[in-house]
Please model this.
Amino acid sequence: MRRHLYLIAGFASLGLGAIGAFLPLLPTVPFMILAAFCFARSSPALEAKLLDHQHFGPHIRRWRTSGAISRRGKKAALAAFTFSATLALFLSPWPWYLIPITAALIGGTWIWTRPEA
Model:
């Protein structure tokens, strides 16, 4: 039963990552890393496919070995956080816009402190 739940979660993460490839505010690589994590516990063949993927494989391997995020990835994530926080600032009333701003500050700080490739 647990294996099936990991498989479902892996496909859900894969789907969200695929959507994130086309939507600028939804991250792609973190969902692919999560999918690889789930597939490692449910389907080694699917995990191997992700690890061998020409675009996502290096990011997943780098994250697994050292928790590293590329400088380009950091810049993209911080740009998305900044865009989201700015959008919330102009479109949300007080105090609701503080939630995405706080999330951007916390998430952005955490991402920036990760090692680089």
User: Anything to note?
Assistant: The mean pLDDT is 90.
